Every structure is written in structure tokens, then in C-alpha cells.
Amino acid sequence: MVSVGTIIWLSSELMFFAALFASYFTIRAVSPELWAANTERLNVPFASVNTTILVLSSLTCQLGVFAAERGQVGRSGKLFQVKAWGLREWFVLTYLMGAVFVGGQAVEYASLVQEGVTIQDSAYGTMFYLTTGFHGLHVTGGLIAFLLVLGRTFLARRFTHEQAVSAIVVSYYWHFVDVVWIGLFATIYLIQ
Fold this sequence. Notes:
The chain is mainly alpha-helical. The protein is built from six helices and no strands. Helix 3 packs antiparallel against helix 4 and helix 4 (87-114) runs antiparallel to helix 5. The longest helix is centred in the C-terminal third of the chain and has 33 residues, at 123-155. The radius of gyration is 19 Å and the shape is elongated. The mean pLDDT is 91.
């Protein structure tokens, strides 16, 4: 039931991001010259590396889910024996990658603000910061969820099916956030 509820909730989140995409394309269609002038300021190589980190975090998240499904909460070998990692190690790595992504977005925001691209500057700035900012908030929410799942694994006396389900549900959310970012990245950085 938790998985079904999560999928229904993610469907409502999809509608939210669909509205943001619709707004972005509508405003872009009525002022293409504004988009042409501002997209030149984007650091596409930096954003590509940041995107790669986020996309790879989906892989590490899924490896954590596989470990949870096996009932392996912690590593069974040395720290650098990646094949022996459990849920905790994979989720910690996923958390770190997500935090690097958010930090990368903060660096990009600072750079764009220095170049004069702000929310109040133009419709382009407004849509750029709204779409990427709401996505960043969703990534931050996912990071909090990872901390909660990790905390539960340390507090519980034994790893249960419910904890495995929690890890799986958090992975659904994380994969959703990654897929939305791929769409945003393509829309904002590649379609110029």
C-alpha cells in the first residue's frame, strides 16, 4: 500500500512539474530573443557534470535497494570492497552525490546572479529559478528522506521488511527526481 500511495503522490508531483514545463515553454514562445540572450550565459559543461552526478546517484540508490531486498543493511567486508556494500553504504554515497548536485546548483546560481540573471531581472530568470529551484527543493527533500531511512537502520534492532519498503519508496522518489531533472536539463540547457 505504501508503494501505491507513493506512486499516486508522485503522479501529483508530475502534474506540478508539467505545469512548470508548460509555463516555461509558453513564456519562451512569446519572447524568444530573451531566451537567446540568456541561454548563452549558461555553463553547459558544468551543468552536464552536475547532471551526470545526479543521474549516477540513481544507480547507487538502486544498488542500495538491491542490498535492502537481500536484507543486507551494512557492508559485509572492508570499506573499499564495493561488492560487499549494504544499504547504508549505497545510500550514504547517494546522499553525498545528491548533496554535491545541490551544491553545484548553488554555485551555478551565484555565477548567474553575478552575470545579472535574477528572478526579478526577466521572465527568463523567473522561469529558470522557478523550475530549477523547485527541483532543487525536491532533491533536498530526497536527501532528508535518505537520512530518515539511514537513521531507522541504526535505531532498529533488526532490519525488517518495513525498512526495506521504506528504502524502496525513497528510491521511487529519487528516480522520479532524477528523471524530472533530465527533462529540465534538456529543456533549459540543450534546447537553445
